[in-house]
Amino acid sequence: MTIWIDRPAWPAHGRLWSHLISDISYAELHDFAAGCGIPRRGFEGDHYDVPEERYAALVAAGAQPTTSAHIVAMLQQSGLRLRKRKGEKGIARVLGVDFPDGSRADVDLVRSTRVPPDAATFAAVVYVRDDLGRVLSVYSRRRAEWSAPGGWREPGETPAENAAREMAEETGVRLDPAALVPVGYERFHPLPGSPWPVEGGRFLAIFTARVTGAVPEVVVADGEPARWLSVAEFLELSAGSWWLPGAEAVLAGGG
Fold it and tell me: Residue 253: its pLDDT value, please?
């Protein structure tokens, strides 16, 4: 058994909490948590937060007691550690992602109301919703997938300006960058021996925005279509994409 738990020692919401991890894989951790009735909302990207009253039952089910320092060390040694700032929520750490340009990286998906470090942010994406809750979506021939509008940052742009420009170029829909709300980011860890296309670029900023009233017409840019899709349609068309857990987290709350 490779499931570990530290003793309840972390105060929050009027009780103490433990961290539940696997030192092998997220899949093993999710299977164990589900079998013990731990809700998925307790997952923080590399561990589950579990309340003190569940500690004894989890140990009885096979989780091995250990120290908090050992928990951190095992996550680091296994490559499963997802770092985040206070107030942020880890969604997932996706290992060994292959990109169309031949580069490879592990990627952290994080929910946050703060934009990532400016100097290291090389791209941005925006999830735009209308009054019906539909999502503005574009198809990329290069990646062969549907996704939210987004792309690489140009010199002199803020991340929000980057996202707004890409949205206008890819869909014809124009919004004030000030209307975009930061909701998360992707953090890339290039793998050894793999080329990385942007020197020092490690973050993609994620925003949301809303259009109210009349729904803007969308255009086909460079032969790549754009559409308004229901959330269910968007998630179905995006099934299998490595970034999907982040999209689900953003769209679950209405964007």
Answer: 61
Residue 42 φ then ψ, to 5°: -80, -5
Tell me the DSSP string of 11-28.
EETTEEEEEEEESS-HHH
Beta strands in 54-156 (DSSP E): 64-66, 89-98, 104-111, 121-129, 135-140, 145-147, 150-152
- H or E element at residue 10: strand 10-12
162, burial (CB in 10 Å: exposed 0-12, middle 13-18, buried 19+): buried
Look up residue 72 and give its amino acid: V
Task: In whole angstroms, give the CA distance from residue 211 to residue 173.
Answer: 9
CA 161-167-172 angle, 5° bins: 125
> Per this entry, what is the length of the chain?
255
Give the percent of the chain with pLDDT over 90: 84
Q: What's the rounded Cα separation, in Å, for the pair 93 and 101?
A: 21
* Residue 252 pLDDT: 86
Residue type (1 letter), 160: A
Mean pLDDT, range 105-134, rounded to an integer: 96
**Strand intervals (E) in 88-235:** 89-98, 104-111, 121-129, 135-140, 145-147, 150-152, 181-190, 203-210, 226-229
**Rounded average pLDDT over 164-193:** 95
Torsion-angle region of residue 40: left (phi > 0), alpha (psi -120 to 50) or beta? alpha
All structural domains of the chain with their residue ranges: 3-78, 89-252
CATH architecture of 89-252: Alpha-Beta Complex (3.90)
Average confidence (pLDDT) over 173-180: 95
> How far is C-alpha 118 from the geometric centre of its chain's CA atoms?
18
